[in-house]
Specification:
With 66 residues, the chain is mainly alpha-helical. It has 4 helices and no strands. Helix 1 packs antiparallel against helix 2 (29-44). The longest helix is centred in the first third of the chain and has 26 residues, at 2-27. The relative contact order is 0.06.
Length: 66
């Protein structure tokens, strides 16, 4: 399963570069940096907003295999 996830990430990597280049070309550097910085900020704050992220590290877990 890890290999499939890694392959998906590596497949999508060039698409992110193309999307950033298109955004830079259409909107300009300042706007592109502001939009992408805001997106990264929201993504990094997800663990604070969604309780399911906090439960990932709990060891009292249902569904853990031993």
């Amino acid at each position: 399963m890890t290999g499939v996830l890694a392959a998906g990430v590596l497949l999508a990597t060039p698409l992110g570069g193309l999307a950033c280049g298109y955004l830079f070309d259409r909107a300009g550097l300042t706007t592109a940096l502001a939009l992408l910085g805001g997106a990264y900020l929201l993504i990094t704050l997800c663990p604070l907003a969604f309780p399911s992220w906090r439960r990932m590290d709990s060891t009292s877990g249902a569904g853990t295999s031993r």
